C-alpha cells in the first residue's frame, strides 16, 4: 500500500509540473553545441517559452511526454519535438510513447532502451542526495530555530521544498543537461550517437562550444519544477495517507 500511495503521489504531482519539464528540456537543447550568436534564440526566458509553446503548438504541447514520464528516454524525445519554427535539438519522427520506443528498438535493439542511462545515474544520485538532505535540514531548522519558526506543517514543507530545490538545481542542473543531450541525440545506422560518443565526450563538447553556462541551460525551469513537485508529492501523499486511515477504520 505504501508503494501505491507513493507512486500515486508522484503521478499527481507530475501532472502539474510536466509543463515545466517541457520548458526545461527545450532550454537545455537550445543552441546545442553552438556558441552564443551562432543560433536562433527561440526561447528568451521562462515565461516567454511557456507563451511561445502554447501559442505555436497549442496548450496541450506543454504536456508532451506526460504519458511516458516513467520512461525518461521517451519523455525527453517527445518533449523536444516542436513546431519547425521553434524547434531545438534533434527532432525525432515518432509522435507518441510507443512510437518512440519502437524507434529506439529498431535503432539499437533491447539494449537501445538503456542508451543514455550513463547520463542518468550521476544525475539521479546527486539530485536525490542533495534534495533529501537540503529538504530535511531546512525543515528541522524552520521548525526549531527560535528566530524564524514555521509552525504550519504545510507551510514548512513548502518552504523547505523550495529551499531544497535551489540546491538540487545547482548540483543536478549540469548533469541534467548532459542526460538530456545523450537521450535526445540522433543515432547513426551503425548505432552510434550523431553528436556524442559517450558521457565524457558530451561534457567536453559542451564545455568547448557552449562554455560553463552551457551546463546551466534551463536552470530556472529546473528549479521551478523541483520545488512545486516536491510540495505536491508530499501534499498528495499526506492526503492519501488520511484516506487510507479513514478506509481502514470503516
UniProtKB/TrEMBL annotation:
The listed locations are: Mitochondrion inner membrane
Sorted keywords for this record are: Membrane, Mitochondrion, Mitochondrion inner membrane, Repeat, Transmembrane, Transmembrane helix, Transport
Q: Which Gene3D superfamilies match?
A: Mitochondrial carrier domain
Say which domain of life the source belongs to.
Answer: Eukaryota
Q: A Pfam family this protein belongs to?
A: Mito_carr
Q: Which InterPro entries match?
A: MCP_dom_sf, MCP_transmembrane, Mito_Carrier_Antiporter
Please tell me whether the keyword Transcription regulation is annotated for this protein. no
* NAD found in the keyword field: no
Start and stop residues of the Solcar repeats: 1-90, 152-243
PROSITE patterns given for it? SOLCAR
Tell me the membrane topology, using the record's own terms. Answer: Multi-pass membrane protein
Q: Looking at the UniProt record for this protein, which Gene Ontology cellular component terms does it annotate, in alphabetical order?
A: mitochondrial inner membrane
Write out the similarity annotation: Belongs to the mitochondrial carrier (TC 2.A.29) family.
Q: What is this protein called?
A: Uncharacterized protein
